[in-house]
Design goal:
By secondary structure, the chain is an alpha/beta fold. The chain contains 7 helices and 6 strands; from the N terminus they run E-H-H-E-H-E-H-H-H-E-H-E-E. It has a 6-stranded mixed beta sheet with strand order 3-2-4-1-5-6, with helices on both faces. Helix 3 links the parallel strand 2 and strand 3. Helix 2 packs parallel to helix 3 and helix 6 crosses helix 7.
Length: about 210
């Protein structure tokens, strides 16, 4: 079976990213910076051979994916399986508020306890199962082709760990930048890391006439 090439992208910036406020399954739109990032992303990938653009059904991911799809002459295919981890009662709260209101739960969260579920949310174990299962399903439909998958920070984290063999509890030492380009290779045997956290398309704002 031919490998599937994957361009994996975290959505552009939102106001809640700036505020360190947990979004989870809440549907928060891109801010002005995020929309600019999405445009630059679309331009950067305009000459890539892309068979399909998949995205989380949440607006911030769908908006980002739309810029890529427009450049490629494609439609965005939404998939709820690509949503961010569900954080339950943490959603809508800042990191500082969570530390204050639920110190015991915050500690388990900070320590990346794989079995910990915020009330009404998902554990890392269940989240990883969902994301890896979704990616396997999408990639298996495109042997020998390249697809774009637009999701969230947690989604990118799971994919990086899956491709490099990092445990769920391992400290994160890799970037999860908004609108960064990450490249993976999928076969039925698993994921391989090709490139990570390419933000060259976001470096020179002077090239974007919309910022003039």
């Amino acid at each position: 079976m031919n490998a599937t090439r994957i361009i994996a992208i975290r959505h552009g910036e939102t106001a809640w990213n700036v505020d360190t406020r947990i979004q989870g399954h809440l549907d928060i739109p891109l801010n002005d910076t995020g929309r600019w990032q999405a445009r630059r992303l679309g331009a950067a990938l305009a000459h890539e051979a892309i068979a399909c653009v998949y995205a989380s059904d949440l607006g911030r991911a769908h908006q980002t994916a739309q810029a890529v799809a427009d450049s490629a002459g494609l439609a965005v295919v939404s998939d709820v399986g690509l949503r961010e981890r569900a954080f339950g009662i943490f959603e809508g709260r800042t990191f500082a508020e969570i530390e204050t209101d639920w110190p015991d739960q915050a500690l388990r969260w900070r320590k990346r306890d794989p079995a910990f579920e915020p009330e009404g949310g998902e554990s890392l174990l269940r989240f990883r199962e969902r994301i890896v299962g979704t990616l396997n399903r999408l990639a298996a439909g495109h042997p020998g082709e390249q697809i774009v998958v637009v999701g969230h920070g947690g989604v990118m984290d799971v994919l990086y760990r899956a491709a490099t063999g990092q445990e769920l509890q391992a400290p994160r030492t890799w970037a999860l930048g908004n609108a960064a380009i990450n490249r993976l290779l999928w076969t039925p045997d698993g994921l391989t890391l090709v490139g990570w956290a390419d933000t060259g398309h976001l470096d020179d704002a002077a090239l974007d006439e919309t910022t003039a």
